[in-house]
Amino acid sequence: MMGYYVIAGIIFLVSSFVSNKLKSKFKKYSNIRLQNGMSGAEIATKMLQDNGIRDVQVVSTPGMLTDHYNPANKTVNLSEGVYNQRNAAAAAVAAHECGHAVQHARAYSWLTMRSKIVPAVGVASKLSNFVIMGGLVLSASGMIFGNTVFLIGIILFAVTTLFAFITLPVEYDASNRALAWLENNNMLTAQEHAGAKDALKWAARTYVVAALGSLATLLYFISIFMGGRRD
Asked: In whole angstroms, what is the distance from residue 30 CA to residue 88 CA?
């Protein structure tokens, strides 16, 4: 299991670096006050209106960086700092979440695909680690069906890895839609737009790190399984 701990350690360090960098970027761009004076909520409302979306509500949600779009009840949920603030970071996040609403309204294929596998991912994420560890323990105990249990766990983990990679184009596309709308509608100055773009870039990298980390772990589990079969 030493290999697993090494991989987990590397993933943790890289993830922590990107997360801290993201927080510092948002703190930096939170100090760039928008010349148009609009809050994150107002930015979001206007982007939805400009895209002809009338059935999505912009609401405030507690916490920091808890912003998300909920396709089930059609709400753009903005954290308190984004909802009320009038800076480049708030504009970037608000527009990004609205980008997901636009994807939903336009039936963006990657978002549709991700939504369809959400139920399976929910089950897989809860069970995969328990099944994998159970399979390893059973195999180490000499149980014949240990490898089968381990394989089932790997398949469950593979579902979560697939979801992580499907999420990448969804997130990048939402950011691209957001930045294009902000620029085409002259919502931000050049400095504000540069800050919004940089903030979203680092936000996207958190998803890249998560996907690569999940893939590395999956390949590690597969190598153990193949090694066990050769034995």
From this structure: 6
